[in-house]
Amino acid sequence: MRFLSLIVIILMISNSIYCQKKITQRDLYNVYHFMIGSYSSEIQSVEDTSYFDIRLKMVPLWSHLPSYWLYVEQAIAEKEDKPYRQRVYQLSIFNDSTIESKVFTIKNGEKYFGDWQYIDPLNSLTPDSLEERKGCSIYLHKDANNQFHGSTNKTDCESSLKGATYATSSVQLFSTKIISWDRGFEKNDVQVWGAKKGGYIFHKINK
Questions:
Q1: Among 116-120, 165-169, 175-179, 194-198, where is mean pLDDT lowest?
Q2: What angle do CA 20, 30, 145 make, to 5 degrees?
Q3: What is the 3-state secondary structure (H, E, C) of 6-61?
Q4: Is the Cβ–Cβ distance between 175 and 187 less than 8 Å?
Q5: pTM of the entire structure?
Q6: Which residues, at least 6 apart from 126, have a Cβ–Cβ distance to it below 8 Å?
Q7: Which fold is adopted by the domain 20-206?
Q8: How confident is the model at residue 195, as a pLDDT?
Q9: pLDDT(135) > 60
């Protein structure tokens, strides 16, 4: 019995090590380029009407600065000129098995709506104009199949949207799609916003 228990423990440890591979600068570069592009959840919205047709835009930002930066807009397909979410992401290596995607909002960001379509978006903006969403970073890991996935940390990301006290985000990255699941919860862990069945599946519609 002890021998079997020891085998189980060894397998669990081995699996943990195996599932989180070491992160390199090349991995950081790959994640950055996986994320860049225009995405649509139209296919999912047709197959399951509980999901909306959402358009997601992620474009390079501030290529002259250290680390990798992205400008992000997310909008209902019929209202792409009025995104309901606008963010800036900063990608960097957090430790030898983790990439951190810090999340920022833009002060008076409405005047930059649509900037994703320009060659030099947010060219009048600097990082010190941003407000970091503390506790809302997404921590990405590389699995045994060299695919990247991750999430926010437990209840760290505060949110007041629709009565929530905290929000969670989980992400799976692929070369042609992103699966993203954002949810808000009350303090008693009851979900008050976000998809109920699973993440939104965003297919890349251009590169």
A1: 116-120
A2: 40
A3: HHHHHHHHHHHHHHCECCCHHHHHHHHHHHCEEEECHHHHHHCCCCCCEEEEEEEE
A4: no
A5: 0.86
A6: none
A7: Lipocalin (2.40.128)
A8: 95
A9: yes
Q: Which candidate, 105, 168, 182, places its Cα nearest to that of 135?
A: 168
Strand 98-106 to strand 54-61: parallel, antiparallel, or no bridges (unpaired)?
unpaired
Query: Tokens 């699973």 belong to which residue?
Result: 198
**CA–CA dist 105, 136 (Å, integer):** 11
120 band by pLDDT with thresholds 50, 70 and 90: confident
Q: What is the pLDDT of residues 15-52, one digit of tens each?
A: 444 456 899 999 999 999 999 999 999 999 999 999 99
Task: Write the DSSP string, the chain.
Answer: -HHHHHHHHHHHHHHHHHHSBPP-HHHHHHHHHHH-EEEE-HHHHHH-TTS--EEEEEEEE-TTSSSEEEEEEEEEGGGTTS-SEEEEEEEEEEETTEEEEEEEEETTGGGGTTGGGSSSTTTT--GGGEEE-TT--EEEEE-TTS-EEEE--TT-EE--GGG-SEEEEEEEE-SSEEEEEEEEE-TTS-EEEE-SSS-EEEEEEE-
Domain ranges of the chain: 20-206
Distance (Å) of CA 104 to CA 17, 144, 179: 31, 30, 20
Chain Cα centroid distance, residue 59: 14
The residue type found at 138 is I
Under a CB-based contact definition with an 8 Å cutoff, are residues 91 and 70 in contact?
yes
